[in-house]
Amino acid sequence: MYRYLLTLVLLLYGLLSRAQQTDADEQAVKELMRLQESRWNAGDIQGFMAYYWNSDSLEFIGSRGITYGWNKTLANYRKSYPDKAAMGILKFEVLECRQLSATAVYVVGSWALKKEKPAGGYFTLLWRKIGNRWLIVSDHTS
After folding, report:
1. pTM across the whole model
2. Percent of the chain with pLDDT over 90
């Protein structure tokens, strides 16, 4: 009887511990998105890109198709947003944040740019924990 009870307690502890870690990881990703917003709003595209995986395998899917690579994604951002006025003020709204594994978090949300000609849409992001850092490895923004 005691062995059964001990097994049950350990199982519940493990489940609770994993749930707490999931909450912590999801909150960490949301906080990184807030920091990313602040970098954008300061006119710092390079800082905004610091939250993306600096790899040729980074995937960005937008209205013009798929871009592979951190450098190409940065170049596209710089071309589309050449100065702070063009960048406007960015606001993310996270609609769904779901941990898929210990190293993957999926985020669905909306974005809005306040500027002379406002813009906005939706995004899905796949964040991966790489080298103990959460980074965006795939971004589909429309």
Report:
1. 0.84
2. 84
Lookup: tokens for 126:
């796949």
Number of H helices, E strands in the chain: 4, 6
Report the candidate in 142, 137, 134 with the shortest Cα–Cα distance to residue 126: 137
pLDDT at 17: 43
Q: Which residues contact 121 (CB under 8 A, 6 or more apart)?
A: 110, 111, 141, 142
Distance, in Å, from the CA atom of 40 to the CA atom of 91, rounded to the nearest integer, reads: 10
**Domain total in the chain:** 1
The pLDDT, as a whole number, for residue 23 is 87
Q: Which domain covers residue 126, as residue numbers?
A: 2-141
Q: Please give the structure tokens belonging to residue 101.
A: 């594994």
CATH number of the domain encompassing residue 135: 3.10.450.50
| Locus of tokens 């800082």 | 47
Query: What is the rounded CA–CA span in Å between residue 25 and residue 30?
Result: 9
Calculate mean pLDDT across residues 64-75. Answer: 97
DSSP 80-126: H--SHHHH-EEEEEEEEEEEEETTEEEEEEEEEEESSS-EEEEEEEE
